[in-house]
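Task 17 of the worksheet. Students: predict the tertiary structure of the chain below and write it out as structure tokens. Keep your answer in the requested format; marks are given for formatting as well as content.
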Amino acid sequence: MAFPRPGGETATLRNELAELLELARQQRELQEKNRPPTCYGYARASHELQYQKNNTIPLQMEKVERYYQQHLQPLGVSWGGIEYDSRETSAYRIPFFKRNAAIRLLGKLRPGDYLVVDKVDRMYRQMKDFVHTDEKFQKLEIKLCFVDFLGISFQRGTPMGDFIMAIVVAFAQLESQMISERIKQAFAAIRIQGFVTRKRKVPMGT
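Model answer:
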């Protein structure tokens, strides 16, 4: 009488397990492909005083959610909630993808999803941060929407939205250059008067 080899049973079980895992993977991909897009929001406060007294986070959240209800909910987009940085967070010093709220968002966002932000400067205040963020979202197929730019809303990736974003970036770059020039002129004036300046100390009035 012949008995089955233990090694043969192990190989069979291994193959069956591999098939089950592959089937589960395919089902997850199908569910992910067929799920409706989700809208998330992002909010940020620049400094502690703004966070505590100006009520800026709740105001941003209210505007973001209203935008979703008016523009995205009628399209069948589901609501995923808002992530925000709980204390002051400098957009100038901390790039978007290094902020706690952005890290949480990256764990949730999927291709086709929406990210809604109140204003452009809530996300970034540096050109290089804008370029890096924009490239990443395009690769991830995330649709970026801004609620308020001079009183109008726009979505990145649309002809009008791209045009407005080009204007925003141009103004941001011009503003940065003008501030840098004023700081240089202020330092030069201080040195002419015989005072010693510190490298990181920005003169008042700039």
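Marker's comment: The longest strand covers residues 78-84. The CA atoms of residues 23 and 29 lie 10 Å apart.
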